[in-house]
Every structure is written in structure tokens, then in C-alpha cells.
UniProtKB/TrEMBL annotation:
The chain crosses the membrane at residues 21-39, 45-63. This is Uncharacterized protein. It comes from the Eukaryota. Keywords: Membrane, Transmembrane, Transmembrane helix. It comes from Amblyomma americanum (Lone star tick).
Length: 76
């Protein structure tokens, strides 16, 4: 909000830029910033999910193999 006020006071009024243009550009900047943050968060969540799925499937397979074998027998 402070940045928007500064822009209106010192940058926009000498050039006679309409207020709605300034508001629109600042809104677009804010939305793109939020989208960048969301994209980074989505990538990290995706990587986390892939790691969890891989480790979970490996653990499940190991558990199944371990539970099927009885001590002293060879799993074929």
C-alpha cells in the first residue's frame, strides 16, 4: 500500500497516468508474485509426494517380502 501511494505521488501524477492504470499494474504485479510463490510451493509439495510414494512403496514391498518369509526359508 505504501509503495502504491509512493507511486501515485511521485511517479504517476507528473506523467498524468490514470489511477486505474496504476491500480491495475500493481494488482497484476501482486498476482504474479503470488503465482510465483504458489508455483514454488507446488514444486516442493510435488517432490515431497514423489519421495513419500517411493519410500512408501519400497517399505510396503519389503514388509510384504518379510512377512511372507518365515525364518530359515529361502524366498524364491
Amino acid at each position: 500500500m505504501l509503495r502504491l501511494r509512493f507511486t501515485m505521488k511521485y511517479v504517476a501524477r507528473p506523467m498524468k497516468v490514470p489511477y486505474h492504470v496504476i491500480f491495475l499494474t500493481s494488482t497484476v504485479n501482486f498476482v504474479t508474485m503470488m503465482l510465483n510463490i504458489l508455483q514454488a510451493a507446488a514444486y516442493s509439495i510435488l517432490i515431497f509426494l514423489v519421495i513419500v510414494i517411493i519410500t512408501g512403496s519400497v517399505a510396503f514391498v519389503l514388509f510384504r517380502v518379510n512377512s511372507c518369509t518365515t525364518p530359515g526359508t529361502v524366498q524364491v
